[in-house]
Amino acid sequence: MKRLLSLFLAACLALSLSGCLADYDTPKHAELSEQYDFYANSQSALSSGMAITPEQADEVFIVLVSCGMEAKVTNVTRKAGDDGHCQVSAGLYVYDVYYTDGVVDRVEYNGEELYPTPAPAPVEPAPTDDPAAPETPATLEQAVDDAITAANAEKEDVSIYDAASVGESSDGSFVDIYLSGKDHLTSNMVRKGMLMQAADILESLQSRDDIGRVTLFWAFPLVDAYGNTSTETVMKATFYKDTIDKINFDNFDYNNIPVICDDFYQHAALNG
């Protein structure tokens, strides 16, 4: 009788464990497992550590990856009495995650907000003395400055010149935009930020008929093997007007910038 009872309890335990494992087979499980080799361990750690469902853990994982997480979650710490805040350890980084009912509200690292990224303030048209007067088109110089501001980019310099000055033929001016790369946690996030800025700037300038070509340069401080720091161009992307006109920004993925641009350069420091 005792043996039968033991076998029955063992069978119940096995079924219970099987049910728990099956809970992690979420609708996004296969896709995320294929994209990230550290997903499965992270999903279970987030679900148990944050006391949320596996489906909610998937969404938290996606948010953390967008914030630069590139290693599996090794620990989740919740402060006593604070169910809406936890610290997630992954690799060398510890993220502060604030959430409500399993949905992420905010992610911080060392006090810097990584999620959600605040949208840039809209550029308001300059007021006119006559409210009925038609809007005067901005100069190309002003349009470029407005595009940089809307992209939340840091301008170093802008050069606008005739195509003939460099031996080319074009109905519009050539525009060189020099920007400072923003220091994020990982090289992947630095690269992502530059590509997003490129897409935003191009979208703002797409309607301009006085542009023949746009070239974007990003400078970033690098440290060599000897510990010496120098500011170098880490990314350059060139777009002729006909290329810019082909882009449907409603569906465009900024990750395709290197694919569709007319010339692209990326420093090896961004390959990590």
Explain the layout of strands and helices.
Layout (H helix, E strand, L loop, with lengths): L1 H22 L5 H7 L3 H12 L3 H13 L6 E6 L6 E6 L2 E8 L2 E7 L2 E4 L24 H11 L3 E8 L11 E8 L6 H19 L5 E13 L5 E12 H6 L10 H4 L2 E4 L6
What is this entry, summarized?
The chain folds into 2 domains: 26-115, no CATH class; 140-270, Diaminopimelate Epimerase, Chain A, domain 1. It has 8 helices and 10 strands.
How many discrete structural domains?
A: 2
Report mean pLDDT, rounded to a whole number. Answer: 84
Strand order of the largest sheet: 1-2-3-4-5
Reported CATH architecture of the largest domain = Roll
The oligomeric state of the chains shown is: single chain
Low-confidence stretches: 7-22
Into which percentage range does the β-strand content fall?
Answer: 25-35%
Range of helix content: 25-40%
Name the shape in a single word. Answer: elongated
According to CATH, what is the topology of the largest domain?
Diaminopimelate Epimerase, Chain A, domain 1
Number of helical regions: 8
Ends: how far apart? 62 Å
Give Rg in angstroms.
25 Å
